[in-house]
Specification:
This protein has six helices and seven strands, in the order ααβαβαββαβαββ. The chain has helices at about 10-20, 35-45, 65-75, 90-100, 135-150, 180-190; strands spanning about 55-60, 80-85, 105, 120-125, 155-165, 195, 205-210.
Amino acid sequence: MDSTGKYLEIVAHYESCLERHGDSHLGVDWPNARDAERRYDVMLGVIPPDARQQVSLLDFGCGAAHLYEQIRTRRLDHRIAYSGLDLSPKFVALCRQKFPGIPYYCLDVLAGDADLPQFDYIVMNGVFTEKDTLSQAEMLTYFQALVTRVFAKTRVGLAFNVMSKQVDWERSDLFHLSFDVLATFLTDALSRHFVIRHDYRLYEYTTYVYREGSE
């Protein structure tokens, strides 16, 4: 798949949501605010609760930095050194206006990531839930390429969510990924140390991928 240009359609979709709905859960295309907050908590679950030192975290596909707002609400900002990244200049401009003291990156890591440092943890919330006009095969190729590139920038772990196939029906514009396909890819390309969370009552699941297994 020549992903150049195709995945930019997904970016354009989210920018249209921001234009219509502003800085809100609808502006990043989450239909329900309470469910969006639940996703943020699940994403932060990639960090062990007993971590004793401050960790660095990159919010990849940060949108309007609502994850950082959740970190502050949960009073975790003393434990988490937050940075954000988004491919959309409009979202990055919004984030910098809201939180001028936070590092934000506006770049396409598939085109080059020379300016992106490593982080302890990287979370990708909502980056792979919608495929818009991409075919399943195109989205899978994009997903595998981007996760591989991003995992190379993590020191400890990565979290991302996709739509579940354990549903009554599948939407054609969403990216439903089977456990078997995911597990084979992770084991072959990234790590055998991963956790699949399908326990938070949404039509999706979140995966934590670690460089080393827990003791």
